[in-house]
Amino acid sequence: MKRLLKDKSLFLFDLDGVFYKGKESRVKIGGTKAVESLRAKGKKLYILTNNSTDLAETVYSRLREFDIPVKEEEVLTSGLLTAEYLQEKHGHVSYFLVGEEGLEAEMEKHGHRRTSGEKANFVVVGLDRNVTYEKLDHAARLARNGARIVATHTSALYMYKTGPAMATGPLVKAIEYASGRRATVIGKPSPLMFEIALKRADVPRSAAVMIGDQLDTDIAGASKAGIDSILVTSGIDKGTGGFKVLAKLPDVDAIVPLL
Length: 259
Prior knowledge:
The protein is of the alpha/beta class. The chain has 2 domains: 2-78 and 188-258, 3-Layer(aba) Sandwich (Rossmann fold), CATH 3.40.50.1000; 90-185, HAD superfamily/HAD-like (Rossmann fold). Helix content is 35%, strand content 21%. The protein has 9 helices and 15 strands. The chain has helices at 2-6, 32-40, 56-65, 78-90, 101-109, 133-144, 169-179, 191-201, 215-224; strands spanning 10-13, 20-21, 27-28, 44-49, 75-77, 94-98, 113-114, 122-125, 148-151, 157-160, 163-166, 184-185, 208-212, 228-232, 247-249. Strands 5-4-1-13-14-15 form a 6-stranded parallel sheet, sandwiched between helices. Helix 6 (133-144) packs across helix 7. The relative contact order is 0.18.
C-alpha cells in the first residue's frame, strides 16, 4: 500500500464527507494534515466536488477558513466545470436553470444567459433545494422541444448535517424520464470530471488516486476513468460494496502515514 501511494503524483479529493460535512452548518472532518503532507512531498492535488450550489471561489474560501491549504485553481466544482464545458463546446448559450444561485452565478461568469421563457439552448440541472413541480415540468417541456440537458452531476445523495440527503440525480432522472432525452453529465460519476483533472495536472491516470466517501460517485467515477481510489468512511458509505479500492480509511488524514 505505502509503495503504491508513494508512486502516485496526483491526489483527487471529494469535498463533502471528506473535508467537512453538512451544507447548511459545516463541521470539519480533516484535511489539513493530508494536504500539508502532499505539499511537502511535491504532489499535485485537486478537489473534485459535485457541489453546484456555490461558486468555486466560495468553496476555496471555506477550505481556507478550515485551515486546509489548497489553492483556488485546485478547486474544481461541478458548477464551474459545467459552465466551462458549455463555453468551450458551444460558446455563450441560453439556458433554463434547475439549480441555485451559486450555479447561476458561475454560468453568468462564463457569459451564459438565463431564460425563463419557452426557448432555451440548454436545460442546466444542479442541486435545487427549492425545486417545484412547475420548474421540473418547464424543464422537461423545453427538453422535449429541443433543448439539450446538461447535468452538473447525477449523485443520488449528499452528506447533510443530519446524514445523507437527496442530491441532484433524482432531479435529472425526472427531467430525462418526462422528456425522453438523456443528459450530458459533467460531474461524478461521469469520467469527464476526472479526465479534466488529469489533463490539467498533465499526469497519466496510473499516477492518480481518488479519495472519496461515496461509492456511486467517487469510487464508481474513478473506476470508469481507470483511476485507483481510496474510500474514507467519514461520509456516506462505510463498505466497499464490491468495488476494488486501494484502502478503506476512517478519515482523510489517515492517508498521511501511507504517503
